[in-house]
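User: Can you predict the 3D structure for this chain?
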Amino acid sequence: MKSTFFLCFVVISFTALAQRRNETKNPLIGTWKFTQQSKMSVDRTSSKYFPIYKTEYFVLDAGQKFKHFFLDADNVLVKVLEGKWTATNNKLRMKYSTIKYEFDTDFFCLDDELLLGSNFKFLTFTKQENDSYNLALK
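Assistant: Here is the predicted structure, written as structure tokens:
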């Protein structure tokens, strides 16, 4: 009986650790700061949902929820949008819950940069190791 209990404990512990490792291996999880867009990407400037702000962040969590933060020129938080994200192969789907907007896009990671888009129309986000605004907590 004791050995059965011990065996169950060991199996559950290893399963929990394995699931935790899989979550941390996803390169999309974290805080991403918008850094640039390609010259050919003009869709962004014409969007009525996303006027151009000084600074933007995406915070993607392991529960496949995200927050999209907008800061003005004085680094004051102006707007926060929330939603859910999923990634399959090289496709990212983001569906906002606070507004009626969703998009699918190709993505790939290069070192600490996340590039969204295709056909030389890219938005570039840079991974932020230190979240100085504590955006993940807002």
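The beta strands are 30-37, 55-60, 65-71, 77-88, 91-96, 102-110, 113-118, 121-128. Residues 2-25 form the longest helix (24 residues).
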